[in-house]
Amino acid sequence: MYRPYSYSRLNTYKTCNRKFKYHYIDKAPTSKTDVSALLKGGAVHSILEHYPEPSTHKLAPKHQHIADKFLRTNLAQKYIFRESTREFSFGLTVDLQPCGYSDKNAMFRGSVDYTCIIDEYVEEILEINSLDEIPDGYELVEVIEK
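^ thats the sequence. predicted structure below, dont judge the formating
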């Protein structure tokens, strides 16, 4: 069955092709891991994604203090409070032509968490987990500790 490759699938292959094989081809069972950081990150992401409206994430109230702390930073002042587009998804065909995220011809699917318009330029904020994941052509502006 044909399935398009997401950025995370391609990145997994690039990082460790054996992990890609075990996870996506062999579908080997994964061990149970602590997902508390994932749950906390999902809640904070939802709070910031919906700001200034309240988040509907069930853990948002528990982690609101993290988002509040971030909203007081210079980075938040620079990006969150400006004209922006939040959370949109896209697809690309095999010929790298834009198409809808759910389009059956999408060979690649991805999401942009946030774009911010500053002085006629579009700046993107990408979520990365390590400095090794910074794509070519991008620069590290600020590190936010979770």
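Residues 36-50 form the longest helix (15 residues).
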